[in-house]
Design goal:
This protein is an all-beta fold. It contains no helices and 15 strands.
Length: 92
């Protein structure tokens, strides 16, 4: 796992192995990120978000608090996710 310049990771966050937490991301309190995930530059994961294994969050995306992104999902760049995503979904 690599944490790039300017990323903010707040209290209680857990990040798995082989992840990229890219430039200027915000990972808020109690967020859980699984293995093999990429959080692209400028993404914001609000409190209690869960990103499951093998998922990608695009640049500038915002995920509302208490949302779960299941395995192998893509959250598109500059999107606002306010609902849970089931396995193998793409959200634009």
């Amino acid at each position: 796992t690599i944490i790039m310049h300017g990323a903010v990771i707040n209290v209680g966050a857990k990040i798995g192995t082989n992840c990229i937490i890219n430039t200027n991301c915000t990972i808020e309190h109690d967020v859980i990120i699984g293995n093999n995930c990429h959080i692209a530059p400028g993404a914001v994961l609000n409190g209690n978000v869960k990103i499951s294994d093998d998922s990608f969050v695009g640049s500038g995306a915002v995920i509302k608090e208490n949302i779960k992104v299941s395995e192998n999902c893509i959250v598109g760049a500059n999107s606002f996710l306010k609902k849970n995503l089931t396995k193998n979904k793409v959200y634009k």
